[in-house]
Structures are given as C-alpha cells and as structure tokens.
Automatic annotation (TrEMBL):
Disulfide bonds join 18-260, 159-202. This is Transcobalamin-2 isoform X1. It is found in: Secreted. The gene is tcn2. Belongs to the eukaryotic cobalamin transport proteins family. Residues 1-15 form the signal peptide. GO terms for cellular component: extracellular space. It comes from the Eukaryota.
Amino acid sequence: MLPLILIGLLACASAKPCADSEGSHQEVLLSINKNLLRSMGTQEEPPNPSVHLALRLSNVHNLAKENEHLNRLKTKLHNDIQNSLSNSQPIDGLLALYTLALKSSCYDLNTVTFTVAEKRETLLTVLKKQMEDEKEHIAFSQRPSTNYYQYSLGILALCVSGVRVNNHVSNKLIKAVEHEHFKHGDSVSIDTYAMAGMALQCVKTAGFHVHGAAELNIALSTIKQKLTTARRADGHIGNEFSTGLAVQALLAMGNQVEECAASLEAMRTDARRNIYHNPMAMSQILPALQQKSYLTVQNHDCLNEDDTLVLEPTDPVVVTASDSNVAVAVTVEVITSGGVAAVYSVDVPKGSSLLEALELLKGKNAGFTFETESSLWGPFLSMVNGEQARQSDRRYWHLSSDGTGLTEGINDYKIEAGQKVTIKNTSY
Ligand code: B12
C-alpha cells in the first residue's frame, strides 16, 4: 500500500500534472485562450500583436477569428506603424511584435512593406535599419532610444525570421547584460532579462555570433543566473507579470520543464485568482503555461491546426449594489519634478479603478488634471497637472500606494479600501 501512495505522491510532485491537476491545468489554459480570443473584440478595437502571437502559439484555435484579427493587424496596425515611421519615431518593439505576429500566422513577410524616406522597404529591412539606429544610439548615449526590452524583441524577431543579426547589434545587448543595464524604474527588470535571454539564445542557435561566442555564452549564463536568483519562495520570478516571460526564457535556454514547475504552478494559481485580467499579461504567460517560448515561432508551420475554440455568449455582468454603494476615501499625492507636493482627496465607490478615481477627482475641479497615452498595456499616465513626464527625457509618473510601487497601471489597479496613492514625476 505504502509504495503505491508514494508513487502517487511522486507523480503529482513532478511537472507533468497528474489526473486531477491535469484537468484543472487544461481548464486554466482554456479559460485564458477564451479570454484572449474575447479580447480581440470588435472591428473598432485596435488589434494587439502580442495577443495574436500568444493565440497562434497555442494548442487550440478559432481559425476564423484569428484570420480576421490577422487582417486587422495588416491594415490597422500596419497603418499605425506607417504613421510612426513617417514621424521618424523609434518603434523597434512594435515592429518586432508585428513581425512575430505575422510569422506566427505563417504570413509571407517579404510581401509586407512600408514607405520610409519615400522608399518602399520590406518590414524586415525597416526593422533591421531601426536596430542599426538603436545600436548607434546606444554607442552615443549608453542606452537605446526605446529600451533594452524592445531592443531584445527586435533581435529576437529578426533572428526567428532568419535574418542575420549584425554582430555589433547583438554585442550591444551582450555588453548591457554584462553591465547590468536592465532596469525598470529603479529596480531590476526581469522582463528585460527574459527577453534578452530569448533573443541571445536564438542568435546562438542560429550560429550568427561565431566571433565572440565566449562573451555570448557568458551573457546567457548571467541571464540564467539572474532569472533563477529572482525566483521567490512562492515560485514567481520577479513579480506575477514577469514570471511568464522568465519561464519562456528559461525553457528556451534549455531548462527542463520540471525546473520551472513551481513557477508554472504560481501562474496557474494567479490565473485562477484572475490576476491576469489584462490581455497583455495573459498573452505573455500563455506560451509559458504551454511550455513554449517565442522562439518556437521560428519553426511554426501552421499545419494540421486544431479549430475547436469557441466562445459561449457571456453572461450579463451583475453589478452588486452593495459594493458600488460603499464609498472609500482616496488621497492622491502629486509630486512634481521640482519636488513640489500637492494633496487631493476624493471618495470613490469601492472596487473603482485608479483611473476612475482620477477621473472623479478631475471632475471635482480642485486643480487636479491628468492625461494618458494609449499603449498595448492600456492607458499610460503621461501628464499630471499640466506637467508631462516624457520618455525622451527619461522621466515617468511613478505610481505607489503607502510607499510601495504599484504592480499595475491606472486602469487595472483597483481601490478596495481607503488609501493614499502617490504619483511622482521620477527619472529613470
Ligand atoms: C520599459 C517599461 C517601462 C518604462 C517605459 C518607458 C520606456 N523606457 O520605454 C517605464 C519605466 C516608464 C515604465 C513605467 C511603468 N511600468 Co513598465 N514596463 C516596461 C517593460 C519592461 C517594457 C515595455 C515595452 O517597451 N514593451 C514593448 C512595446 C512594443 O509595447 P508598448 O505597449 O507599446 O510599450 C509601452 C507601454 O508598455 C508603456 N508602459 C510601460 N510600462 C507600462 C505599464 C502600464 C501599466 C502601462 C499602461 C503602460 C506601460 O511604455 C512602453 C514604451 O512606450 C514592461 C515589461 C513587459 N512585460 O511588458 C513593463 C511593465 C509593462 N510595466 C509595468 C508597470 C507596473 C509599470 C508602472 C505602473 C510602475 C509604477 N509603479 O509606476 C509604470 C507606469 C506608470 C504610468 N505612468 O502609467 C508592469 C505592468 C503590469 C501590469 N499588470 O499592468 C510590467 C509588465 C513590468 C512588470 N513585470 O511588472 N515601464
């Protein structure tokens, strides 16, 4: 009897989920797939290349909806990218995500073109040139004009598309790993280490980096070590939102699924607790939960795909009168770049988002104003009381509550109890 129990326990402790947990693992996957499919939404909503990529790498599909979304990427997103290029904006990250999304649908990348300086160029040529410009920018000012996360995405997208990545371009990333340049605000950016890991692993496997192979290997082991030491007791690597990318990177760099079991379990628990309600968050964890990484786009052949993913009509949302009736007090402290502080107060219905709270506060005409910019993660707070925190000046409005940095933005962060929120113009 005892050996049988022991075998059972051992089977459950291994990474391959056993009977019961296998069922609930599949349930989590299905629910994320459906939520992502739902987030693709209607014609009016901007198409999201990261969501497309995640659904295309998935094991279950709704091919008609994915195809319709692909068409919107090729029209709407294409247009947006063309506009940014016409305004000479650095958009390596978005170009890279667009490339990965198209490639995940096995779309012929050579047929996708943009007009830059009155010349027609293919998507991959434009991306390659952006990366050369970024490389120059790093040489001149020690960082890319976007960030190292986007620089890594750029290398990854070129590499999985079979474009030879210039040694000087990958060297800049290798040097940045060596000098620990990957920061998110004032803390370490695990997301960036993960993306850099996938990019450099691709470069290594493709054999693009024969000169300087030793440096490349050192950078890869440094990244592995950064990711493993960032693993918390509860299995998360960094925080809830970097764990998916970190697991993708570790798997891409050759770690066994068993070694990531605790992190996979942590993400499944988060998913059940609805921590990943933002489609971007779901899109970054779904490949990891299916034990894949963005590197698998390289050999994605789009053959014999499942087509069973269907959406049931959603139940109408029932607003619980009790919750929306309870008001909680929020104090908003604004600290400008000059260090001047102003404090405002507003009562909001319990469960409101921070964005809703800021809107109510703005409506009180107490002198508080704000503006946002849209991004793939949702509204990014860009201007407060007429003061802009610009990426070009390496500044942003940092959000914290009672001394702790928020791990979500204004649209996702919910106010459940009376509290103080600090919005501080910070340099990074
Ligand atoms: C770089 C980066 C930043 C930079 C952006 C400027 C720059 N240097 O480019 C800075 C340091 C300013 C920043 C700020 C914040 N960030 Co940030 N950021 C990232 C990172 C590493 C890469 C984003 C990127 O370039 N994506 C690629 C491009 C193609 O996509 P994009 O959507 O066009 O990119 C823009 C937006 O993502 C926007 N952005 C960056 N962070 C955030 C966060 C939120 C909530 C929103 C709405 C937008 C946004 O800036 C990008 C460049 O313009 C991601 C990591 C990840 N896993 O995605 C975290 C990440 C998105 N950030 C995060 C957070 C929490 C924040 C802050 C809320 C932190 C805080 N406490 O203040 C603030 C945003 C506050 C605000 N004003 O609204 C979380 C979001 C989690 C979530 N569930 O919402 C992530 C996932 C990191 C993490 N693992 O915790 N960030």
